[in-house]
Design brief:
Elements: H1 5-32, H2 43-46, H3 61-67, H4 72-92, H5 95-98, H6 101-112, H7 116-125, H8 129-139, H9 145-199, H10 204-253, H11 278-286
Helix pairs in contact: 3-10, 4-9, 4-10, 6-7, 7-8, 8-9, 9-10
Length: about 290
């Protein structure tokens, strides 16, 4: 007799029992399933009018803007100012505006030939941030190296201030436009609660108009603020790079400048108002 025969019969019995247990719920579910009910009569079969779904309401961009309320007027003005400041900033911080290559080449030729008077006249006739800084430096050459460098640093700070002033307005717009949108959000919520208090939820059209004002005002403020901030940081870095370009050019032009040989020389037509004190002049005349 095979010694494994009892074990094989036990395994077959357990397998059959498991199959019966697994199939019994399906059999019970089929027995307990109710008979299928006849399909309900459609309105067309009974002769009743067929209900129609309301058409989808689509709004144009202008209608959505009008939903924003009165705050859309200052937001629209800020959007126009943003576009203008971005275009002006790109033009103002470009190499062609800050340090034209033609100006740089001409100044290099004049400095190499030692024609500082001609260089001063060229800078005065062709104003740009680069030539303005170089013109101040040339006019102060006779005062020594320290005075010349301090004068150019001061003029460079003025040019940087002129450039950064307009760019900083983009930051102001980026801060104020979301606040204006938030103001529209507050006014829209006030209208929504007023409508809800007077007419309840029975008039959803007026309530949805107030909610539309809330969402449109907030979204419009953010829509202006995001590009304004991005343009502000881009143009600020562009302006810093332009100022560094001016510093490099002026450092190259005034390197090895013979300040000692030019001590006391006055170049340019700058009016000098400082004079010898009157009491010293009178004392010298008396002697």
């Amino acid at each position: 007799m095979n010694p494994y025969l009892p074990y094989s019969r036990l395994i077959v019995s357990l397998t059959a029992a498991l199959l019966l247990l697994a199939g019994s719920p399906l059999l019970m579910a089929q027995d307990a399933a109710p008979a299928t009910s006849p399909p309900a009569a459609t309105p067309a079969a009974t002769g009743a009018p067929v209900p129609q779904e309301p058409p989808a309401v689509t709004k144009t961009l202008w209608q959505q803007i009008l939903e924003g309320g009165w705050v859309m007027v200052p937001i629209a003005l800020m959007s126009l100012a943003t576009v203008y400041l971005i275009i002006d900033g790109v033009l103002r911080t470009g190499r062609a505006k800050i340090a034209p290559e033609a100006h740089e080449k001409q100044l290099q030729k004049l400095f190499q030939s030692g024609d500082y008077v001609g260089a001063y006249q060229f800078c005065k006739a062709n104003p740009s941030p680069l030539t303005n800084v170089v013109r101040i430096g040339i006019s102060l050459i006779g005062e020594g190296k320290q005075v010349t460098e301090e004068g150019m640093i001061g003029e460079l700070a003025k040019e940087n201030s002129r450039i950064q002033t307009w760019i900083s307005y983009l930051s102001v717009i980026g801060v104020c436009s979301p606040i204006v949108g938030l103001l529209g959000t507050v006014t829209g919520m006030i209208k929504a609660f007023s409508t809800l208090a007077t007419s309840g939820i029975g008039d959803p059209s007026s309530l949805s108009a107030s909610i539309g004002e809330v969402l449109t005002a907030t979204a419009s403020g953010l829509f202006i603020a995001i590009p304004a901030f991005m343009a502000f940081y881009f143009l600020r870095n562009r302006a810093i790079s332009a100022i560094h370009q001016i510093q490099d050019v002026t450092a190259t032009l005034f390197r090895k400048m013979p300040y000692d040989a030019m001590a006391g020389v006055v170049i340019g037509d700058e009016v000098i108002y400082a004079s010898t004190p009157s009491w010293l002049q009178s004392a010298g005349a008396a002697q």
